[in-house]
């Protein structure tokens, strides 16, 4: 009797094990179909319009970005070099026209100041008279003249120090 019960129990266990294996096999087939569907969708979405892989396109784009970083670094260095050169180039201008004498019209005298990025340069002034004309040049260092300056020369220097890019002649009359 014990032997029959034992055989029945083993048969029941074998049946239950077989049923579990059958359920697992069905589950594996269902999962396999879902994975195939996901692979199909993944392949569809991971291709561009030409059929090339988006992943390979992304790799190419990242490589191009890394190459552009070198170019960008070179541009930044070139820009620094240009800025260093610009500090030594004349780029600020001051200009004042005026009448040096009461009996002469048309503002034929002038003061003209040119400065670089460090505010170094010169002031060139011309005093026009009926019988003669004189031209003076005065050095400017760090925005200051080493010699005495006339009111018009100082105004020209101030114009150059405040220069914003547009040159505007200032008419100066003796009547002021």
TrEMBL record:
The keyword Transmembrane helix applies. Keywords: Membrane, Transmembrane, Transmembrane helix. It holds the Pfam family DUF4446. The keyword Transmembrane applies. The chain crosses the membrane at residues 6-30. This is DUF4446 domain-containing protein. It comes from Megasphaera elsdenii CAG:570.
